[in-house]
Amino acid sequence: MLISKTLEKAINEQVGREFGAAMQYVNIASYFTAGNMLMFGKLFFAQADEEIAHAMKLVRYVLDAGGKIAVPAIAAAPPDFKSAEDAVASALKWEEEVTTLINNLMGIAVAEKDYIAQEFLGWFVNEQLEEVSKMSTILSVIKRAGDNLLLAEQYVSQTLADLEKVESGAHGSK
């Protein structure tokens, strides 16, 4: 077995957190979609999909390393938000918490001199920089837009279009 019981348990806990984050992002996406802010909805539904992919990446690692999966109970995500700013602020807070949790996983791998796990977890460390930066930027745009959330919606719409162009070019499609 290439994974310690300590790291196996900690990663299993993170798997549950990633699924919980997906539920949180579904609730945020639903908040925006119900308010006819469809680009914000699209963005946060995509975030939910990404969190599920993160959970599955962790699951595959544990299994590949000879460990066992035991997904813990997942707490309900908050279903209501006071405002767009509140919704995105909760996403940013979550991503900051996840950064600490991923760093803790890396700390276990470093303490155990588990170089395979360190290599694997390095992807998540880098991903957290991207996630915190993205949510921080979106929150900043919403704050600057003030009561005119249509400006923020336009920003997200353009950003998503730009990302899709980059991704399609990177994958050679279209």
In short:
This protein has 174 residues and is an all-alpha fold. It is built from 5 helices and no strands.
Summarize the structure in words:
α1 (5-34) packs antiparallel against α3 and α3 runs antiparallel to α4. The chain has one domain: Ferritin, CATH 1.20.1260. It is mainly α and 174 residues long. 79% of the residues lie in helices and 0% in strands. The chain has five helices and no strands.
From the structure above, extract its key features:
Ferritin; 5 helices; 174 residues; mainly alpha
Tell me the layout of helices and strands:
Elements (H helix, E strand, L loop, with lengths): L4 H30 L3 H27 L19 H28 L3 H31 L3 H22 L4
Helix pairs in contact: 1-2, 1-3, 2-5, 3-4, 4-5
Any idea what the shape is? elongated
Helical content class: over 70%
Helix count equals 5
Cα gyration radius (Å): 18 Å
CATH class: Mainly Alpha
- SS class: mainly alpha
